[in-house]
Structure formats: C-alpha cells, structure tokens
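Progress narrative, work stream C.
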Amino acid sequence: MFSGLALMVVAIPVNAGMASFTRKFQLEQMLNKDKRVKLMNEILSGVKVLKLYGWEKSFMAQILDIRDKEIHVLKKTGYLGAMINFIWISIPFLITLLCFATYIFMGDGNILTPDKAFVTLSYLNIMRMPMAVLPFMIIGLVQVGVSLDRVNRYMNGEDLNESAVGHDESEADPLVIQKGTFSWGKEEKPVLEDINIHVKKGSLTAVVGTVGAGKSSLISAFLGELDMDQGRVNVNGTVAYVPQQAWMQNTSLENNILFSKDSNRKRYTEIIGACALESDIAILPGGDQTEIGEKGINLSGGQKQRVSLARAVYSDADLYLMDDPLSAVDSHVGKHIFEKVISHEGLLKDKTRILVTHGITYLPKTDFIIVLKNGRVSEQGTYKQLIERKGDFADFLLEYMNEEDEEDVEEIKHQLEETLGKEEFQKELVRRASVNSQDHHHQEEQEAVHNGEVGTEK
C-alpha cells in the first residue's frame, strides 16, 4: 500500500504543474474573449457606419483573428485536460499493479492469495471514484480561481477620489484649475499637463482645439473623473454636464427631460422651444409621452443630443459643462440652440458655461477662449486677443473654416485678412484646400479599390 501511496504523492506535483498551465491558458482565454466581446459590441453599436464605409472585411478579419487565438488556446487547454484525465484514470490501475508487484517481489514468503488480493482491491476501489473526480475538480477550481480574481479586481478597484475636486467657497472664480496634470490612471501617461484655468462667474468660455487635443479630458478633469497627478481643482456650485454621446432613460420623453425634477409646465415648454424639440415632439406618436426605447433607439442622434441639453437646462444648475453638444445637429438648428440657450441672450445667460466646440461661427460671441494643443493650454484670451496673436487659434480657424457655410464665416475671414494680411491669408487658404483635396482624392481612390474588389468577388 505504501508503494501506491508513494505513486499518488509523486502524481500530486505533476498535476499541480499541469494545473498552473491550465490557469495560464484560462487567463489567456478570458482576455481573448474580452477583446472579442468588446469588438462585437462596437460593431453592433456602429453597424450603420460600418456598412456605409464598407468596413465589413476589416472588422471580420479582426474578429476571426481573435477567434483563431481563442481556438488555439482552447486546443492547448483541451490537450492539457486530456493529459490530466489520462493520468488520474491510469493511477488506480498503476497503484494496484505497483502494490501487488511490490508485495510479491519484496520477499519469497509473500504469496498473493485471493483473500489478500480482494481486500486490497476493495480498498483501492474505494479510492477509485474520488480519484476519477479529482481531475475535474482541479480544472473547476482553476476556472473558479481565475473568475474570482477577475471579480475581485473589479469589485476592489479604486474609486474616484472625491477629494480631487475642492469646493472652496472663498475662491473668487467658480471653476479653477491650477498647475494641473491629469491622467486616466496611475500607470497611464498624462493626457493634460500644466493646466492653469480660471473661469469667471456668469461667463461663456469656449474650449477649442484639434481632435485629440484634450478638450473632453478637460471637462472630465472638472468633473473629477481623471486622476490628478498634481495641481488643484476647485468647483463652486451645482454642475450640469452635457456629454458628447447623449444617453437616454427607458421612459417617456418628458421624464427624460424632467429627470425626477418637479414639473413646471411653463419652464418646460420654454426649454422645449429653445432646444428646437417642438417639431420632433409633434411627429412622435405619443408626443412627449412617447416611450423612449433602450439607448434612445427610436430617436436620431441629433434628437438625443437636444433632449440631453434640455435635461441639463431644466436642472437649473449653477455651472454648465457642454462637450460639443452642437456637433450632432444641423447648422441652422445649432445656431438656433446657441442663440436661444447658450449665448448671452439665451436661457443660460446668467450661468457659468464652458462650451467645447469646433464651430468657429460661435467663437466671436464668447467671453473667453481656451486653445488646447497636445494636452496643454497653448493660448487663452478673448477672441480679439487670440486673433491678433496669429498663433494656434488662428491656425484652428483656418483649419475649420472650410467646414462652415460661406456666409457664416465672412466676418471671420475679414478679421483674419486684416490680421494676417490678405496675401498671406489667401496663400494659407490655398495650401489648406490643397491638403484637404489630396486627402479627399486619396479617400476616393481607396473607396474605388474597395468597390473594385467587391465587384470582382460578386
């Protein structure tokens, strides 16, 4: 019996090693599964854009690549599981063989009689079932351990630091960042560096910059959603936030706007008109009592953005942080909303407002402009001051000028001509138009190649 016990003891570290490999493969499999599920969610969320641009092959290749990795890991896990099962199924037989062989060859007087053999086999059969279940238990424990580690990391993850944003009422300005450096995680590189901003009470401040300059991150810094590596943030007053991607509740349109606030019909009607929602409500089957589906499925992107803005306006907060709310609406609707809601003649005229925007036609009507570039404040000042500096703000205006209607930017063109000089201004416009034309031509060539490939396949 002791020889059989010795074999079991030897088998334990062998299986422990195999179990560690199983754990490694399980972790790898879970990571691949996470990537695939995340990519599938992105594909399903943006399937219209994907079909419009003909990106099916590209995304299909990415999905299949991840799936191939999953299959490869599953094969390795399967082979390893088969080895563990084989070892533990074979061990009872090997123990029996080893026990009998050791008994017989240990001495000449040891004779294997039926009574000794049957008693030994009875003991070994008692052990057979636990040993047959053991490999499945090992694999199950490994899977449970991996899942518990993932749940533990999620449940014990760091919360947002509530003390990151101060509320010192002695501060003169309601929104302040001093020498701020921010990142999305302690191990991540900073997305905003050396930020110094003071927003005056009751002012309309615009935040501009190219894509990826850090405009949305700046709004998140005021909300306390970024890790502050150094510096100070102070916010005085209640805050209403209008995100770039509007979100909806699965309830009526009216409740989406009221958001648990007491109903004030006069104010509600005024906000509906200012946010250009009257015509949309008129065509909905139940008016403002129409049930909004999950994620606002029965509303367009522009409608969802206007409902989100109306919700913020109805909250009657002290401070308004608006992350490009006019990008999802048509130009004429955007002008209406800016004039009736955001500007100094709008519903929020007495509120402190920060507006992230790419619409250059709104900038002359703001009190202060902050220009971001590569996560830093490159310039800040009034519209007139920044125009006269001929810096990054002037470059920003030139870059986005072609995206606006000719009539809307006529005054801005005139101001830039006076500041830069007519010849320099025209030269810069031609250069940028040439770059944009080349990019457009390159895009058309890619589409033509793709269409040719699709036609050949058909």
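Work stream C, second folded protein:
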Amino acid sequence: MAVQALPHLLSLSGALYDWSNQLGYSVGFGCCLLAVLCGTPRLRRRFQWAPLCWIGAISYSLYMWHLPLLATFAAHVGPSLTGLPTYVVYASYWIWAALVVIPAAGAMYVPIEQPGMRLSDRLQRRLKARHRRETQTITTG
C-alpha cells in the first residue's frame, strides 16, 4: 500500500516545491525592489547608473532579440568551439551578448519601441480626453 502511494506523494511534493520555489523568488525580488526604492541614497545611486538605466530602457528589445541572436551564434560559431574549455565557450557567449545582442537591442529600441511608446501616449491622451468630454456631457446634459 505504501509503495503504491509513493508516486502520488512525490508528485504532490513536486507541486508544492514548484509553488513554494516561485513564491520564494517573488518575495525575494519584491524585497530587492523595496530595498532599492526605500533604501539609502548610496544604494539607490548604484541603480541609477546610466548604463544600467539604458539596459532597463532597452529591456523589451533585449528580451525579444537575445534568443534569436544567441541561437544564431550557437548555430554558426558554436560548432567551432567544440573541444575548447568550458570557460572559453561561456566567455564567448558573453562577448557575443556584449558586442552583438545588446547593441542590436539598442538599435531596435530607437526605430521601433520609441515610436510605439509615443503612439501609445497619444492614444491614451485621446481616450482620456474623449472620456472627459463624455463624462462632462452626461453630467451637464
């Protein structure tokens, strides 16, 4: 009987681990954000460093482009790295990320993301203005 229940118990512990694991990451990330927002000026200054803010600005482009560009690297350069020490392969990925992925994300940010954000701002202002006009018409009408 106990042997038959073992797979069920293991699957429950796995589900509990998955849930608690994600909760731990979420709480930890929230505490980090709280420390940055409410921490000492010295701590906040470190997170206001211009290159770090720029990475934050291009983060969506970075998210969209990192995987295809790293996959391209793995497909075309990766085979020539076989047999090299692991740290050399790992370092080459980071060099590719620094020299290709981040600049490509920055290059996509200017012609694609910035106009999209400006369009979003214009549309939101129009919707708010329309909502105000409709609200005024209803209250005065």
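The mean pLDDT is 86. No further action is required on this item.
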